[in-house]
Design brief:
With 210 residues, the protein is mainly α. The chain is built from ten helices and no strands.
Length: 210
Amino acid sequence: MNVLQFIVHNRMQFFDLTREHLWLVGWSTALAMLVGIPLGILIARRPTLSSPILGSANVIQAIPALALFGFLLPVPWLGARSDRLAILALTLYALLPIIRNTFTGIRGVDPAVMEAGRGMGMTEAQLLWQVELPLATSVILSGVRVAVVISVGLATIAAFIGAGGLGEFIFRGVAMVDNRVILAGAIPAAILALLADFGVGWLERRLRPR
């Protein structure tokens, strides 16, 4: 039985694990955007805060995934639910590219455009929502694309703590020394990462200022 036959034979479980994988990635990416974009705007407004915020995100990114799961596991509310723990860990990993690209995008807006907006009587809030964010959208989405691809890959490790996802097949295949089962989780996860990269990349190109 090859990989495709194994997936077809276990299609219900495959679809359930794929849905869990997408659920983990979707929630973690959404939370990372809710936290990362405002932080990127904040450090663009207050550059003195860029070093501690970006430095903290860099430190989190440098921690191995299994070690981060281990650090978070004893936390009472998180440790009680493996999916919560996995979503928080994936969110923390996704923060750096989103914060960094939001900061870069906002700071990259032409000062002449900002001055023109101020000359028209626009407030700082209006400049942010009507000038800076629209011009920085493609750069921000570039960071989101990196964050999504990172999350799709790291979500496979979430199976180690019982959070589900396609990593279940990978860990089961390792335990059984069965390459077919490993590939049943690894190949779809790689395809999801490629599709996410292509989809967000297409959106990024569509929203790039002309």
